[in-house]
């Protein structure tokens, strides 16, 4: 995979400008903040906990990502196909990697802004207890890495979908599956070898170490490789369409 080219940066800027001028983006951010905060403070009752921890706050991240990520990525390619601009992009002097990385970077910035906005929660709670900063940093790193893999998968489904609705619904179903695969092993009596394989394929399973404050290089590498894999498949989809 090549480094960032001027074409990639230009496309990322264009996509980001379009997203920041869309009310839907601000709706996505608002949903993310409200869902996490309501779950944390009211459903999980933070103020009744015996320890100063944000783990319950981050424990819902994999679940909320199943809605948040498709909402971010559904327009990326599906809208281009609907308006006919996808064909125009494929005829321009952009490589498939330029196009895919441009879309990915703009989506990643949107997600990163959403995560930055959540910093208001730990900052407001610091005076109430002795929070472990190392654990909080690990949780945010994990949330970003998990988001990268989910975004790459969401973009892939957007490139395969004919419209935004199918891109969103398909993304939700697939992300819900890969996020919660590890829950199957606790519900089913499976041989350990099969259970280990299913757990390994679950994105949420690899996020658990970050939620515990552990920066495990194996999980970091997993998310990076999964992100690259889905982005690579996305470039092959574009190449197929270009020569079809």
From TrEMBL:
Task: Indicate the transmembrane segments per the record.
Answer: 26-43, 55-73, 104-128, 140-161, 167-185, 220-239
- Single annotated GO MF: ABC-type transporter activity
- State where it is primarily located: membrane
For membrane topology, the record states: Multi-pass membrane protein
Which keywords annotate this record? Cell membrane, Membrane, Transmembrane, Transmembrane helix
Record's GO cellular component terms: plasma membrane
Localized where?
Cell membrane
Pfam families attached to this UniProt entry: ABC2_membrane_2
Q: Which InterPro entries match?
A: ABC-2_transporter_component
**Protein name per Swiss-Prot or TrEMBL:** ABC transporter permease
Q: Which organism is it from?
A: Gracilinema caldarium
Upper taxonomic classification of the species? Bacteria, Pseudomonadati, Spirochaetota, Spirochaetia, Spirochaetales
């Amino acid at each position: 995979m090549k480094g960032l080219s001027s074409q990639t940066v230009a496309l990322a800027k264009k996509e980001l400008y379009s997203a920041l001028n869309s009310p839907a983006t601000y709706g996505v951010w608002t949903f993310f903040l409200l869902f996490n905060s309501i779950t944390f403070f009211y459903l999980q009752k933070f103020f009744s906990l015996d320890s100063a921890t944000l783990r319950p706050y981050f424990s819902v991240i994999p679940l909320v990502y199943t809605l948040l990520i498709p909402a971010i990525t559904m327009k990326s390619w599906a809208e281009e196909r609907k308006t006919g601009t996808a064909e125009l992009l494929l005829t321009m002097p952009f490589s498939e990697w330029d196009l895919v990385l441009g879309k990915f970077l703009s989506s990643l910035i949107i997600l990163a802004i959403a995560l930055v906005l959540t910093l208001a929660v730990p900052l407001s709670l610091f005076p109430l207890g002795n929070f472990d900063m190392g654990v909080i940093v690990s949780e945010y790193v994990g949330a970003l890495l998990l988001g990268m893999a989910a975004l790459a998968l969401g973009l892939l489904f957007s490139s395969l979908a004919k419209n935004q609705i199918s891109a969103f619904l398909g993304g939700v179903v697939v992300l819900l599956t890969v996020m919660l695969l590890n829950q199957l092993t606790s519900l089913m009596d499976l041989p350990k070898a099969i259970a280990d394989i299913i757990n390994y394929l679950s994105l949420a399973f690899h996020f658990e170490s970050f939620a515990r404050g552990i920066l495990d290089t194996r999980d970091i590498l997993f998310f990076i490789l999964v992100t690259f894999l889905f982005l690579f498949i996305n470039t092959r989809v574009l190449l197929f369409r270009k020569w079809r």
